[in-house]
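Bench notes, afternoon.
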Amino acid sequence: MLSSGKAGNCPKDKGVSLTDCLKRYCAPEYLTGKEQYYCERCKRKIDCEKRILFKDLPEILCIHLKRFRFDNAYGWFAGSKNSRVVTFPVTTPLDMSQFMEEPPNQPVEYRLIGLIQHIGSMGGGHYIAYCQHKRRAQDWYEFDDVQVNPVMPEQVERAEPYVLFYQRVPTRAAKFERQTFKKDMRGMQERINQYLLSMSRCRPQNSMSDRSSEDTNMQALQEEIRNQGPALRNLFISPAPELDMAFVSKHWYVRLTTMSRPGPLDNKEYLCPHGKLGYSSAELASEPFFPISKNLSSQLISLYGGGPEITSLENCPKCQAHILAYNLRKQAEYEMVTRYDTKDTGDGRGWYLVDADWVDHWKRYVKSEPVTNYWDMCSPGPIQNEKLFKKEDPKQTRDNLRLKADYIGVNACVWWLFMHVHGGGPPVVRNDLEMPWQEISPETHLLPDELRPKEGDDFYMRTSREFVEECGGDEELYKSLYGTKHLQGDASPDSQQPDTSAGDAENVPDVELTEEAATAAADADATVTDSRPDDLPDGSPPRAKLPEEAVEVPAVEPLEPAAEAVEESAGDLPASTSPTSAKPPSDAVMQEMDEPSCQEPQSSS
């Protein structure tokens, strides 16, 4: 912020120049007496000289003239406006070389591209803006609210500037590089057109009708070139050696043509971890680039830095598989949460608490559009319920937890779906959404039907965190790491991880053995072993399982979802019914998925 000095009383005062304001701003200031500087090295106050110099200057330089002086002792409007005339260059450049910390090798010049003028006094006024035409430097426009009028440069010079906008003037070398780039790009486009036309003429013609339609084919090919059709995209994927082709991003081209220093030609932002383009299709891969010659590409990288050089717009097949798996899983997850999310505990007895911050990330993830490139994938990551527990006692939940602010409640099906797709944890199951509450053991048998491996069904694999996040949608890699039990429904004990800990008896459905079955089991000297069933997510507690030699007991059918159960009226339940004493009403209303997420459910009563 620059001060323009005191207003002179002489009517012939011609004001002060902008360069004088900058000199005053950068003038040395001597700190003596009470304003001495405390030296960290000497550990005492000393006399010193302070001044401001610029180490580097930006592309756009904004200069704010300090025209208003406030007096806090008399309120906000107690002050004055300095309306002294400040002259500034409009048609000539502003030289900033003298204000640099080190003398530059080349002139540091700026040209005026716009200014803001304040008309009025300290108590009120009006702002007017003047802007230069982008391509015609002699054309200026005045912006007064909704009115836009062309003005002469002389009117801009007579304006009372409040904020000035200057753009750095490119050097002669930079201007020559722009012209060289444009010339090379036009030449490459012409060579590409000639190559595609020659390839079209070389196609076999079997009849007179084919020859007569040659002109029509040429017109179609030229239209295809203008619209970057399949022929051009295929050429970009596998460039012909005789074209000697490389590619530069359109983003960097805009920087080159509009900035004095475009910066390094960094192509790493377009490359995936495998060193290729990470887009989902050839159309998207060709959109951000211009074709140029390899010779010019090497010169630009040598001059401005950056790299690596891109010589083909071939997409990475691994990233394409990853993008496809990510989009398909996200859509399947959205549909399953919509199907199983309820306003009560569903078929279970408790609420599964989920960290509220994680739920916010999940909402943004599941509501986002299908991704088209590798860098836009934004999975919420594993569930982070550790924040719900005390730091000093990780087994105890915090005392000040708040519903919606710290946690959200979901039913068992949604919880196990989240665990399967994203992992994390730990499970926090309570009988109510509000404190005080009682802890409930995880109900590992309440899995969504889709997550129970079936013969010939790969849905479990394709929605798993391991397949999408760890294997990047690579089925062969997944099979090599995790086997094929989720692909073929293999539930053999050899494919399970044994667990020697005691099973959770609360999670085992009650089974009543007949007298004959009990006798047969005793004769076989059967023992109950602990094992993790195939249909349970990782991290869930084991439950008891009968050995293969024991008598077979008819399997207990899983509980049907609440929306498909026998209808019961909530009024038929006694008033004292709680989630710990009775199953929630089976006619629970499925949540409206206006926001495709687990809504904040209400506690059952």
